[in-house]
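May I ask for a sample protein chain and its fold as tokens?
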Amino acid sequence: MANDTALARQLSPDRPGRPTALDAFKAARRKFIAGERIEMQALAEEVGTSRVTLHRWVGSRDLLLGEILWSLTEPTLQDARNATRKRGGAGVAETWGRFLRVVNSARFMRSFLEREPEIALRVLTTKRAPLQARLVDAVSEMISVEVEAGRLKPPMEVHDLAYVIVRLGESFVYSDVITGGEPDPEKAEQATAALLR
């Protein structure tokens, strides 16, 4: 049959019950959003596969958490951009501030940071997971749009600037874990606006 592809079979509501990597991801994402810790052995059992197969599908726990976080980050950042009416550096700063306020207020994020602070920082802020690199690329794209439209003259190379903005956001939103201070996305937005003025 011409439409009998792996994708068509996975999307079919009456597909056979063999578990897939996507099933594991969806189950893990549901647990994460519910504020639960993701345990690889328990996840493998829930999905109906072995832990070895689960690791082959998703990589390490850090990589799985990074993919879950990116699946939540990407639409949240897009929603923040869509809600922003300003353009140029002010628009980038406002978008970033909107995004960080949502991140800071998300119960599942607060739960993750409180439950597993060292792992959370590793997954959120290092190359051990895909989140930070993808977020830097997304912010780079946002800046590039404003530069190409002639609404922003960046004070440094765009990718480096995006990295600085992401690190500023991490410093202010994860400050409770990093320094014991109160998270403050407003300060991250102010610092970003000052950088892009």
